[in-house]
């Protein structure tokens, strides 16, 4: 859920449409046909059922995704990307202590639940609509990177993060959260963010880009990459140092 350029020009037109008037003597604003269509589509998406049949397991709404909210910089992964990431995470989960933390990546959480309902997961998310996930959900604001329940500290063997913004400050604070969550000793970190964060990811967390290129269900304007702190070998297209 990164701060990436989305094809939302038609929606953004809504904010500027008030400069047009019905006539010179009447200040009643109106929308162009393109902006009106975009508005109708946006409202329809916001009002649709929270259950995504492609994600939910057996109609179980506990793993359903809500609709994207671009105002929160939310862009869900494509099915192929979500399945690939879920398979990789599960391949890293070995032993009773294999707990997984998903920071701002609810698509991955949903697909992990779909693939293995017994996996121990925690979703850290700002959007409180995900409270529907019950005890698997923890409210998370990256501006307070360590204001989290004490039982989460150093509790996760696998930490996957998708920072909501591409700023240096955001990645630095999310890196603090990752350090708070990851187990001492062997742990695995996967970071999904823009190509522009390559050097910062290496400096802050010792991460390298993989050959696999994540995709989203919405068209994004920035190059997106997956970074890891471990060499995936033949998986994920390998490390691309």
TrEMBL record:
Domain of life: Eukaryota
Protein name: Uncharacterized protein
Protein species of origin: Bauhinia variegata (Purple orchid tree)
Taxonomic lineage from the root: Eukaryota, Viridiplantae, Streptophyta, Embryophyta, Tracheophyta
């Amino acid at each position: 859920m990164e701060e990436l350029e989305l094809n939302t020009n038609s929606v953004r037109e809504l904010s500027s449409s008030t400069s047009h008037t019905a006539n010179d003597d009447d200040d009643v604003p109106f929308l162009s046909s393109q902006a009106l269509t975009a508005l109708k589509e946006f409202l329809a998406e916001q009002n649709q059922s929270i259950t995504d049949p492609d994600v939910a397991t057996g109609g179980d709404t506990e793993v359903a995704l809500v609709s994207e909210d671009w105002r929160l910089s939310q862009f869900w992964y494509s099915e192929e990307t979500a399945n690939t990431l879920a398979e990789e995470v599960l391949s890293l989960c070995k032993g009773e202590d294999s707990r997984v933390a998903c920071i701002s990546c609810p698509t991955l959480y949903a697909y992990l639940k779909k693939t293995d309902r017994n996996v121990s997961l925690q979703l850290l998310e700002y959007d409180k609509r995900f409270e529907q996930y019950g005890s698997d959900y923890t409210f998370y604001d990256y501006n307070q990177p360590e204001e989290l329940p004490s039982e989460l500290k150093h509790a996760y063997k696998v930490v996957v993060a998708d920072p909501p913004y591409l700023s240096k400050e955001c990645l630095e604070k999310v890196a603090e959260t990752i350090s708070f969550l990851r187990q001492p000793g062997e742990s695995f970190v996967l970071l999904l963010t823009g190509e522009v964060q390559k050097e910062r990811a290496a400096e802050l967390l010792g991460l390298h880009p993989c050959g696999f290129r994540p995709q989203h269900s919405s068209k994004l304007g920035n190059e997106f990459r997956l970074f890891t702190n471990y060499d995936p070998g033949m998986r994920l297209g390998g490390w691309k140092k």
